[in-house]
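tool_call predict_complex ligand=adenosine-5'-diphosphate
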Amino acid sequence: MDSILTLQNIDKVYGRKIKTQVIFDLNLEFNPGSFNSIIGQSGSGKSTLLNIMGTLDRPTKGTVLIEGRDTGALKKNDLSKLRNEAIGFVFQFHYLLPEFTTLENILMPQWIKNKKIEPEIQRRAEELIEVVGLEKVKNNLATDMSGGQQQRAAIARALMNRPRILLADEPTGNLDSETSDSIYRLLKDINREFQSTFIVITHDKKIAERTDRIIELKDGRVYTDVSQK
Amino acid sequence: MRFPLKIAWRFLKSGKGQTLLILAGIAIGISVQVFIGLLIQGLQTSLVDSTIGNSSQVTIESRENNGAIFDYQEKEDTIREQIEGVEELSPTLTLPAFISLEEEAESALIRGFEFEKAEGIYGFREKITEGTLPENSGEVMVGIGLAENLDLEIEDVLEIFNFDGDQGDVKITGIFDIGVTNLNESWIVSELQTAQEIFQREASVTAIEIQVEEVFDADIIGEEIEGLMEDDVKVTNWKDANQDLLSGLQGQDISSIMIQIFVVVAVVLGISSVLAISVLQRSKQIGILKAMGVNDQSASLIFLFQGLILGILGGLIGIALGLLLSYSFMIFATNPDGSPVVEIVINYNFIGLSFVIAVAASTLAALIPAKKSSKLQPIEVIRNG
Ligand SMILES: Nc1ncnc2c1ncn2[C@@H]1O[C@H](COP(=O)(O)OP(=O)(O)O)[C@@H](O)[C@H]1O
Ligand SMILES: [Mg+2]
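tool_result ok
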């Protein structure tokens, strides 16, 4: 199976004067449709790695290939387009736009595409709202929802453009265990249904154990890499 | 283009307090700019009008002092046919003379007009305070100052003479007040023919007086006319004779423009500082939008559009306010007789320009925030929570 996302010899060094290297010669490949988790201690470089995979940050050295394309060679606007069309992000802090309603936030990736919202797209958004269970609050402003609801909305938003890759950085990091459990079940269902590739950072071993593959980072290197089933 | 506009509009709508504050700033600035501009224009118009509104703006005279022009009819026709922008043309025979009194003589200026033509310049009909226009040969009207000084009344007969030996008796049919003291004290106005008879200058005039449509074009029209005339006449215009007034007006223009520029600069600074704050406040949103694939151009357009929208709305409100101010000024700042101190005329070009300035200035003010928005890296926002 061809890798959908490939990291080759990635180094990441922060700082100009005082240099701190946080990723060391890292190589990883991800299979299309797989559900991967990344675990590791705080400060081990998980977020840094995820941001590099999502083209939000550039590696100091090495190559990021997305669907076989070298992202380092893409122009800024092409990167933006790639992010819009191929990648969905769920961040630890949900980051909905407080000026917009839930439904509008979920439609945002389509708006960014500068597409007219066809009935079919509208239906897709409504469906996603149902999937994440936010029918009752879909016309609320993002700020008028609980943390769990906002995180669900952020997940629905990340899925709006049917991304081939979904990147999530501790999406349940500041939610109670019950809510976070339901969100993982949701992610799992969606992964199965939409066949996107999921790469999720978590600090919760129990959750990681329910994914196809667990990658553990330690001090900027892959410490263990275990595929299950 | 639709996307940044949509976001811009929503940002403005959800930051209502801030938006209203900037709008108020732009609107007040533009209203002041419009009001001051219109007021100064009104002042200048009324000043120019009171100075030259009722006098000749371009004058054709013989080169010889008080020399005769015989072909004045012909000259009139030529000018009417060939020169554009001429509004009134009036031939006049104007000569100094004396009124003989019992023991002495009073100097005066006899002005013979074809009243139909002179009316457009001097508007005598409205300025008669007593009696009527002189219609027949041998009839005159005198200025109110002259009438008071010499104790003249309607039906009085005056004996007029000059040192060339010309003389004649005229009967007063009316008294006028032309609004300028020294003219009121010296003018004796008659039909052209009456003046021609007194001075034995049949079929000639001393000058052709002209008013033009655009008073500030008087010098240009004067030159055009001069080009058509033979060398025996000279053409003068009001601008040559009123350099002081002109430089006064120019000074006013410059100070008015300075005021307007400072107002606009203040508006620009105000908008750009508020928008700059708004970029900071919304850096999270901008970062997340960029992470979702909004490119740098669209990110900067979000703020340019905010400037544009603020400029359009603020400009419209400002112009409405400025007009309201102007009307109020006309209604409340009045002379004792109820007429406005300054007659403000709505100059559509000026107002259009003010609108363009409001929109351009606001968009310009949004440039720095737009640049900031374009430069913002999504990773900064995401890394720092
Ligand atoms: N902008 C930065 N400048 C310098 N050091 C940084 C920066 N961002 C992260 N780091 C450091 O890099 C290391 C990895 O951070 P991070 O990727 O956030 O780890 P994790 O997500 O696993 O907690 C940490 O030691 C952190 O202090
Ligand atoms: Mg992290």
